[in-house]
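HOLO CASE FILE
Compound: farnesyl diphosphate
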Amino acid sequence: MSKSLNLPWQLEQPDWRALYKLTKPKVVALIVLTAVVGSCLATSTLPPLLPFILGSLGIALMSGGAAAFNHCIDQEADARMARTHNRPLPSGSVSPAMALAWACLLSLLGFVILYAWVNPLTAWLTAASLVGYAVVYTLWLKRATPQNIVIGGLAGAMPPLLGWTAINNSISAEPLLLVMIIFTWTPPHFWALAIARRDDYAKVNIPMLPVTHGIKFTKNLIMLYSVLLFAVCCLPFLVGMSGLPYLVGVVALNAIFLKKAWTLYRGNDQSDAMALFGYSIVYLMLLFVVLLADHWIFAWF
Ligand code: HEM
Ligand SMILES: CC(C)=CCC/C(C)=C/CC/C(C)=C/COP(=O)(O)OP(=O)(O)O
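Model generated. Tokens follow.
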């Protein structure tokens, strides 16, 4: 039987570097950070070690699996975009069958770990996030509406709740506020990049907002969401979940965010858009570090 048939039992030797890249490791690292902070905030002491470690591992595996499914589904568009044409599938460093098998393996392994050793609630919520990203966003919304990333952003916003349920096995208001923060952060995070890469998306007919509604309109919405993000970030302080150190931190982080959004609104599309995109990542990382530091300052002093 010919090797080119690529049946599952005829997979090539794995290229581990390519398989690692399929998991979008930097994105998953930030996702896991938000989940870890969700776990730490779920208790006033240190979280119990087993659900903490296995919960973070299961969330990481399923997020990496979701990212690998995204690569499989988007391989043709990725091949035609300058930003993505070097990815493992378009460049041929991994076969479609191997990538699909890898996505299934990571997702299943993550699910089993969460279900068997953490709790079924976390396993099912993480599975819903995976389906939300890989199926609802990538397979459907991405090509259906310029609001794709607003709705699809809910999947990527779930990890603080997943981290929380891994420890508490229940859903409550506090982690939902953290979900709201990431949900509100996603549009400026992504639309900044989409402004800089507008032509790429136009070329492959993906209806991202700068393609369908133009750059000026997208900049308006980035400003609007940036103001909204500031307000949403204040909620943990206003409901008494976080203290003054958190408030000081988020005021500083959001002031810089607003300044960069304003600079983009007024200025150069390429460099200012990439500056806001780059900062959005540092911003989210620092915001969750500040949340955790504030939590521990209150718990221990
Ligand atoms: C639907 C929601 C989201 C969309 C559409 C989106 C879109 C993107 C895109 C297109 C990139 C560029 C990737 C590349 O060049 O390979 C990116 C990068 C990144 N995103 Fe997002 N993102 C979303 C949610 C998130 C979430 C929830 C997180 C983490 C909590 C996140 C963290 C990152 C990080 C860390 C990078 C930099 C990756 C690198 O440099 O390799 N994103 N995002
Ligand atoms: C289980 C769980 C918590 C799932 C969350 C999964 C996850 C990896 C979310 C990240 C969102 C993201 C990078 C979207 C970009 O996709 P894109 O296709 O628009 O960007 P691309 O063109 O760079 O691939």
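CASE NOTES: The mean pLDDT is 96. The two ends are 69 Å apart (CA to CA).
CLOSED: yes
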